[in-house]
DNA-3-methyladenine glycosylase I
Amino acid sequence: MQMGDNHRCAWASSAPDFPDYHDTEWGFPIDDDRRLFEKLCLETFQSGLSWRTILTKRENFRSAFQHFDFNKVALFSDKDVEGLLDNKGIVRNKRKILAVINNAKRALEMIEKEGSLAAFLWRYEPDESTLPPPETQTTCEESVALSKELKKRGWQFVGPTTLYAFMQSMGLINDHAEDCFMREEINKARKGFERPS
């Protein structure tokens, strides 16, 4: 679909790799545990940085973290951590790397208890009628509640702003601008999406 930049969310024209990400990924509802875990991890690495930095390194992150297979990441050793700290293709922040390994272990615990990550995370989908206009906030009541619950369960780097960005990108919220041509596409996708239980 060919559209001028003025028909997309403003941020989508701020970097060369953003339009494709905006048009094909951002905001579509996801119920795949591995993809949800990947996004939580990438949001962890984004903390304090720009999303573009992470997006341009995404394939490197996937390769370094076993394509975010939490079963494998949970088993990472000190030697694996050393290797990651030497990997110039990713963000080499030890606290964030350790947080991802910790969160993989917490993900396994959650799946055992809740059945899936998707079933748990989608419980925090906000009621659309309670949300303000798109692009006007960086947290919501549900991202605050989810942050609190994940921290209680031992997850790290899961603040309310990080989780709101996660909700936007994984389709728990449609935060495309009112005049963005993708807003209606995402509304359709969310309407036809079967919420995991």
Q: What stands out?
A: Residues 141 and 183 are 22 Å apart (CA to CA). Residues 1-5 have pLDDT under 50 and may be disordered.
